[in-house]
Amino acid sequence: MNQNTTGGGEPRRAVSDASGGKTPMQRLEERRNLRIDMWRRRNRSASWLIDHAIEHATRADRLRGFALPMRPARCGWPLGRVDMTLINGRAYATGLEHCASPWACPVCTPVIRARRARDLQQAADRWTGEGHALTFVTLTRPHTKSEPLADGLDLVARAWSDMTGSQRWRKLRNDLGIRHHARSVEITWSPAHGWHAHVHALLFTDAPVNRERLQDELRDMWSRALEHLGSRKPSKRHGVLCENVETTPEGAASYLSKPPDRIGSEITRMDRKQGRGHDSLTPFQLLDPPVIRRLGEWRAKSLWIEYVESTQRRRSITWSRHLRSSLVGGREASDRQIIDDTIPGTRLYPIAPRTWRSLRRSPTLLAHLCSRTETGEIPIALDIIRLIAHERDGKTDDGNDEAE
Question: From residue 184, how far is each of 139, 316, 317, 336 by CA, in Å?
C-alpha cells in the first residue's frame, strides 16, 4: 500500500494543458466534469468488484468475516489521515491506497498511460528530429464471439513475441532499417463479435519504408505466427495495416498533432478512446450508465470483471531493447513508480478517513470540494467537510464504505 499525491484529483496530464481559447472558469468546469465521470466509474468498478469478492469468498474469508477484493476495488481507500493538497494549482488527496493498474482503474490507468505516452512522444520527436521516419502498424486476428479475453490476449502476445524473435524479422529489420519498436495491446468489445484484442506498434526506421512491402512481409509473418499457435489466418484486408507517419512539417502537423493526443497517445492511451462504430465499446465504457442500461447490469458487470481479471499482471506497453536508452534516457519507471512519483505540494487541510469515505461515494460533491480548493475558497471547502462529518456521525456505519 502506497500513498500518491494524485489520488483525490484527476490524473495529471490526462487533459491537455492548452487552453484552446477557453476561459479559466470554463477549464475549471471541464476539469470538474472529468473528475465526476472518473470517480463515478471508480465507484461502479469498486462496487462490482466487491460484490464479486463476496460471491467468491473462500472459507478462510468467511471465517475472518472479510473478503479482500482485487486491487482496483481498493484504489482510493484511506491508509490513515487524508490530506487535501495543492499541487501546481490543482487539488489532490494524499494518504490513499492506489492500485497502479495500467489497465483497469479509472484513476491510475490515465496517470500511467499519460506518462508512457509522454515518454514515447519524446522518443518519436527526437527520432524524427534527427531526420528518421516512423511507421504505425496495427495487427489483428480472427476471433469468435465466445472466446475468453484472456485467451485472446495470450495469443496476440505470444504471436508478437514469436514473430519479433524470428530470424525472418531480424532480416526484415536489417533490410528496411527498422532500429526500434514500441508495442501496446488495445482491447474492445462488441455484442456481435465479443472481445477483440489487437496490437498497435510504432516502428522507428532510418528512412521512410516501402509500405506495401512492409505490409506484405508482416502479413505473412503474422499469419504464420498465429497459425503456429492454433489460430486462424488474419484477414488479408484488415489483418495487417501499415501507415507511414509523415515527417514533413505539414505531415507532422496533420498526424502527430491530432487533438487532444499525439503519436505517443495513439499507441498508449486506450483509456481515452471510444469504441469504433455503434456497437464497439472500450472496457471503461462498460462502467457508464447508458451502456449498463443497454446491456443490462449483470452482463456489463460480468464483462468488466472478466476484463479486470484478464489484464492483471500484464504490461500495457513494451519497448524494444535500447529504444528508451537511445531516445529517452534513464531507467523505465514501473507502473507503481509512476503512481508513487510525487511532486511536493502544499497541504491545506486534513480529512478524517470516515469523512473521506462519505465524500468518495459522491463524485459530484468531491469534485465541488476540489474546485473550491483550487479557487482559494478554503472556508467553503472546510464547511463542506464539516457538513459531511456531521451527517456521517448521525448515521450508523454499515461496514460497506467502498460500494457505490
Answer: 11, 6, 4, 18
Q: Which residue has the cell 470540494?
A: 369
Q: Give Cβ neighbours of residue 303 (< 8 Å, ≥ 6 apart).
A: 189, 283, 286, 295
Residue 339 and residue 78: Cα distance in Å, rounded? 16
Beta partners for 290? none
CA distances from 36 to 9, 225, 371 (A): 10, 44, 11
Q: Does the structure show a pLDDT above 80 at 29?
A: yes
CB count within 10 Å of CB 4 equals 24
Q: Are residues 119 and 267 in contact, defined by beta-carbon separation less than 8 angstroms? A: no
β partners of residue 133: 205
Task: Provide, for the chain, the percentages of residues in helix, strand and coil under a 3-state DSSP scheme, each rounded to the nearest 5.
Answer: 50, 15, 35
DSSP H or E segment with residue 346: strand 346-351
Out of 105-119, 196-210, 255-269, 328-342, pick the least confident. Answer: 255-269
Give per-residue pLDDT as tens, 127-157: 999 999 999 999 999 999 999 999 999 999 9
The H or E element that residue 92 is part of is strand 90-96
State how far the Cα of 232 lies from the Cα of 223, in Å rounded to an integer.
8
| β pairing state of 90-96 and 178-190 | unpaired
SS3 196: strand
If DSSP codes are grouped into helix, strand and coil, which group holds residue 377? coil
- Residue 224 and residue 216: Cα distance in Å, rounded? 12
Q: Taking a C-beta distance cutoff of 8 angstroms, is the pair 162, 154 a contact?
A: no
Residue type, 364: T
Phi then psi for residue 136, to 5 deg, are: -95, 130
Strand order of the β-sheet with 78-87 is 90-96, 78-87, 346-351
Residue 281 carries which DSSP code? B
pLDDT, tens digit, 9 for 90 and up, residues 46-103: 999 999 999 988 877 777 777 889 999 999 999 888 999 988 888 989 889 999 999 9
